[in-house]
Design goal:
Elements (H helix, E strand, L loop, with lengths): L10 E2 L3 E5 L5 H8 L3 H4 L10 H13 L3 E8 L4 E12 L4 E9 L7 H17 L4 E7 L3 H10 L2 E11 L5 E10 L3 H13 L2
Parallel strand pairs: 5-6
Antiparallel strand pairs: 1-2, 2-3, 3-4, 4-5, 6-8, 7-8
Helix pairs in contact: 1-3, 4-6
């Protein structure tokens, strides 16, 4: 299978629907996480304290040619409760990154992240034909690192002094990846976890 780049699509699960991010999602997203310092602690953008700030964050994502952003919509309410993105997709190298993820605090420790990542990984490996999916996160963000490990990703290394945070300090970036050969077992585990509750 020849790999393909992401194109606008909707990915639907039992709990969430991932749809292409648009400015129309801004009011929901601000209601979900605007001004919440804990939600934005590790997201590498300034804290959006107003609807206009949130609109600027979304506009930045939409303007980035390396980013394909999805709004994470809670199916029960029909409201956008977060964002997750594909980055740096390469059909020639058969790889992409998943990142830029944040959710309303009400979605933490629920099925939202597991199902969102299951949808994104299934689409990447089975529909786009990718051979490698990777993640990177701040070395201080242990919650994110643990969540990535629970997906079945493998730690690959740390880039030191890699990115400047919004406050001007430097972060190390911790890298993880999953390759196509690891996907079937990871998919089975994630599917089982979702079914269990």
């Amino acid at each position: 299978m020849t790999a393909k780049l992401p194109a606008p699509t909707v990915l639907t699960g039992r709990h969430v629907r991932l749809e292409p991010l648009t400015p129309a999602h801004v009011p929901d997203l601000f209601a979900a996480g605007g001004g919440d310092e804990e939600v934005w602690r590790w997201v590498p953008v300034p804290l959006p304290r107003t609807v206009e700030d949130m609109a600027a964050v979304i506009a930045q994502r939409l303007a980035d040619p390396a980013c394909f952003p999805f709004a994470v919509v809670e199916r029960a309410s029909g409201r956008a409760i977060g964002v997750s993105c594909y980055f740096e997709a390469s059909a020639a190298e058969e790889q992409l990154e998943i990142g830029g993820t944040w959710y309303a605090r009400s979605a933490w420790r629920t099925a939202v992240n597991t199902e969102s990542k299951l949808l994104l990984l299934t689409h990447a490996f089975e529909e786009l034909g990718m051979g490698r999916v990777c993640w990177k996160t701040d070395h201080l963000n242990e919650r994110s690192q643990n969540a990535i490990r629970r997906l079945g990703a493998v730690y690959e290394g740390t880039f030191r002094r890699h990115r400047r945070r919004p406050d001007g300090s430097w972060r190390d970036s911790v890298y993880f990846a999953m390759v196509a050969e690891e996907w079937p077992a990871a998919k089975a585990r994630l599917t089982e976890r979702l079914a269990a509750g």
